[in-house]
Amino acid sequence: MPPLDDIDRIMAVMDVAFDPAFGEAWNRSQLEGALVMGNCHYGLIARTGGAPEEGTAASGFFLSRHGFEDEELLLFAIDPSARRLGLGSRLLEDFITAAQARGATRLFLEMRQGNPAEHLYRRFGFVPVGRRPRYYRAPDGSRIDAITFALDCFADRT
CA-to-CA distance for 36 and 30, rounded, in angstroms? Predict the structure, then answer.
């Protein structure tokens, strides 16, 4: 289990980064349950682009689940007040590097269609490999497809 202040940091970013209308954020119990399993990993980033110092807030985080040669990016968020500073790119690079170090050869993520982070994922070489029709709830009550992306080739990242 990670230090409680890291869980607090993740929850603080999640509270401001995920629009509650889509129901994508996890609660604290879900986060703690995932992290106690041993195959879930996280990373934090400060506004400076490095790891947050003790007692300071995080500006972003990732949460992933490793399984043999695959790793899935479960959650990825940057505090809205820290967006457009390059932190998303830096944090995604940290995730990819950490997953590789754990032996992952293929990475997955799933996002709702129309998520603005899609351009970031595509820039790093993630490509669509599947779709779940009507998986997410939209603020107006309609349903939005989920798109599954994968990254196979680490050498060709830009």
Answer: 10
